Amino acid sequence: MAKQARRDISALIDKGKVETARIKTEGIISEDIHLELLELMELYAETLLARFTLLDLPTREPDVSILPALTSIIHAAPRTELKELHVLRDMLMSKYGRELAQDIMDNKDSCVPERVMTKLLVETPDPKLVDLYIFEICRAYDVAFSSPLLPETMVQEENNTEQQEAQMSKEEAEVEKQIPSNSAKDAAKSAHKLKPANRTSNKHATSTDVNDKPGAPTKNKTEKDDVDSLEARFAALKRR
């Protein structure tokens, strides 16, 4: 649900409906604040569980170490929809008395932690916070958004990022132009493979041509030639 809401906000900004996007963003901020409150309640409940021995002491005065958790749950539990917190709140009020519980509900002497009280405030979110939310949402969905309420450093950082991406795209395009196509690579490889074969075939052809020339002396003599030569030598000896 939250992801869809953020996508809708980026779409509204892309269409130029900034005010509608701001109203929807206020709803998202309120939901986030409520979730933060629930996380705090979970933290304080775990604190009481870890220090249960202090809760079990036979006294109406709570220990100082569990006081923030105690006051937070008693004060903020009615603002949540968790039944478990409501049950825990009733148990704490029964343990330490209605008088202490009333002081906590009135936040007497600022006994409730400030970070809990800020989550319980009912007010319109700060416009600067709203635009910061929109800026981050638009960045996630690659949608341009600018506002005079945004810090200059964030705007400058976004501009630098866009310039770097454009420069990288330009460099990649130049590199792709310098790389030969696949067909040219294949042709070069084929030519390289054919060169040694051509040399071998030419050498073979040359040697064949030399041996096939008429009148060329043969290197190896046959057995018949050897016999004829011996007979000629014997005939010459007889004549002597």
From TrEMBL:
<comment type="similarity">
    <text>Belongs to the IST1 family.</text>
</comment>
<feature type="compositionally biased region" description="Basic and acidic residues">
    <location>
        <begin position="168"/>
        <end position="177"/>
    </location>
</feature>
<dbReference type="InterPro" id="IPR042277">
    <property type="entry name" value="IST1-like"/>
</dbReference>
<dbReference type="GO" id="GO:0015031">
    <property type="term" value="P:protein transport"/>
</dbReference>
<feature type="compositionally biased region" description="Low complexity">
    <location>
        <begin position="156"/>
        <end position="167"/>
    </location>
</feature>
<dbReference type="InterPro" id="IPR005061">
    <property type="entry name" value="Ist1"/>
</dbReference>
<protein>
    <submittedName>
        <fullName>Related to IST1 - protein with a positive role in the multivesicular body sorting pathway</fullName>
    </submittedName>
</protein>
<feature type="region of interest" description="Disordered">
    <location>
        <begin position="156"/>
        <end position="240"/>
    </location>
</feature>
<feature type="compositionally biased region" description="Polar residues">
    <location>
        <begin position="198"/>
        <end position="209"/>
    </location>
</feature>
<dbReference type="Pfam" id="PF03398">
    <property type="entry name" value="Ist1"/>
</dbReference>
